[in-house]
Amino acid sequence: MRNPRDLVILAAGRLPQGRYGGSLAGVGALPLGVSAVEGLLADPALPRPGNLIWGMARSHTQGMNPARTLALKVGLPSDTPAFTINMACGSSLQALILAAQRLGAGATAPILAGGSEAMSDTPHLVPGLRWGFRLGHRQLPDVMFQDGLRCPVTGLLMGETIERLAVKRGVTRLEADAWAAESHHRAARADFLAEQLPHPDLHHNESIRPEITPEALARLAPAFDPRGQITAGNASALSDGAAALLLARREQAGEAPALARVLGWSEAGVDPLDMGEAPVPAVQRLLTAHGLTVADIDLWELNEAFSAQLLVCQRQLGLPEDRLNVAGGGVALGHPIGATGARIVATLVHQLRRRGGGLGVATLGIGGGLGLALLLETE
Prior knowledge:
The protein has a domain at 7-121 and 237-378: Thiolase/Chalcone synthase (Peroxisomal Thiolase, Chain A, domain 1), CATH 3.40.47. Helices cover 31% and strands 18% of the residues. It has helices spanning 29-40, 66-73, 91-104, 143-149, 158-169, 173-189, 214-218, 279-289, 307-317, 330-333, 337-354; strands spanning 7-14, 18-19, 51-55, 82-85, 111-118, 239-249, 260-269, 299-302, 359-366, 370-378. Strands 1, 2, 3, 4, 5, 6, 7, 8, 9 and 10 form a 10-stranded mixed beta sheet that branches. A hairpin with a 3-residue loop joins strand 9 and strand 10 (370-378). Helix 1 packs across helix 2 (66-73), helix 3 (91-104) crosses helix 11 and helix 8 runs parallel beside helix 9. The radius of gyration is 20 Å and the shape is globular.
């Protein structure tokens, strides 16, 4: 039975994802967000949002509170509240969760949630310049590393934590490379038409390589440890992108049909050294709270920050490969940090609908040892 207070997704889409230094380089995270939101709200049947919650993990140079600028640039009224979230990889999924919580608590209008990231445009910093330099050399910290890829708690790059986790959980280089190749092949075969929003500079997902093979990946040198297994080929591609979703209570939808119903969400924390397996307790809590098992879920979207990390989670949870990242994942499509949570939800919604509907879970691990998971059902 459809309840007027059901939390529903009325629209879900994302831009084509550009490779690092590719077609979207130089555009900027805020303009990417503008393109995504304008594309999403182009449907006149959709009700107008009364609030905007936006994820962005690398907001340097994008101005104060980019969400507010975004709301105004897409033509929302000046009385529309908006705020920006930085939860690293979980930024835009947390934005969606917060939107759902506010709607459940009585928000009077639909809420737009999503995220954008321009990894190609992250700047270098010049610490100390404000008060002047005298003698000696100075460093130019890379925001990509300083505020994104390096854990401030452990001091390790994300890839270094996955090297440790792969050894701990027994995932091999051969297995990671095989999954990476499969991710590219699935993405190359996938139909993204329903979820993809237009951008004038890019019409396809720029990082997908349908010709890639495990044998070719095996020739790549390890990126973090000469004896390790993480390479540029079995890690997520650095990329630029944006994704957006419109959430509402069913009673606020007007004539717009609901794509999916949001049933619940969960959060979890683990030791920062085990960041990559944080989706495991998040998913377990989510399923337990709803009286479900892995077998009840029709499709899974688990962000591929690294192939080895995905395999660690997949094996601990017992996820069937034929229901997991059926359209490829971050290794092939890219992982624009602040946009990825919304991207995997958009993909999940539309891939479920292509297959006749059902239950889906979107989940990801977050630097610092956090995990998020979301349960939805397509209409």
